[in-house]
Specification:
Elements: H1 2-10, H2 12-47, E1 58-60, E2 63-65, H3 67-99, E3 111-113, E4 120-122, H4 139-145
Antiparallel strand pairs: 1-2, 3-4
């Protein structure tokens, strides 16, 4: 039982995920600090609130609603999401697209029905594998498979 747990913990993707979470929480602290130090005071100045905008609140009866904290958290979230998207997601997508391999078309992946026995056969087939009747291959499927230049001899 402990060996299974050890294998789970030492698996590469678990360690990578733990490191990613640690870096993410540190990054969140930096963004939250930046938001509190610069962004919320700027919004406070623009809206006429004195000092830190995150201190903004209103009261209904004896209940206090600190709406400034919610707005500051939303701003921190938007900054975090934008930075992660533009500095990590976009470059990684470009790198993956650059190194992505073009998969060869599988000649047998496209299917159609045999006109005689109605069983499913490959679109490039010239003979049904079930009833052995001759069928005309679909030209588009032959092009995709790169077989459009091959001449199939006529049946005798």
């Amino acid at each position: 039982m402990l060996n299974g747990f050890k294998d789970f913990i030492l698996r590469g993707n678990v360690v990578t995920m733990a490191i990613g979470l640690a870096v993410g929480s540190a990054f969140t602290a930096v963004v939250t600090g930046f938001s509190k130090a610069f962004i919320t005071p700027l919004i406070g100045l623009a809206t006429g609130t004195v000092g830190d905008f995150s201190e903004a609140q209103f009261t209904v009866g004896r209940t206090v609603f600190p709406y400034g904290l919610a707005i500051a958290a939303a701003i921190a979230f938007m900054i975090t999401a934008a930075v992660l998207y533009f500095l990590i997601v976009v470059p990684m997508t470009k790198i993956q697209a650059k190194f992505a391999r073009v998969e060869a078309a599988d000649p047998k992946s496209e299917k159609r029905d045999c006109p005689r026995c109605f069983t499913e056969i490959p679109a490039i087939a010239s003979r049904c594998g079930h009833c052995t009747s001759e069928v005309e291959p679909i030209a588009g499927a032959l092009e995709k498979a790169g077989l459009d230049k091959i001449v199939i001899p006529a049946a005798r």
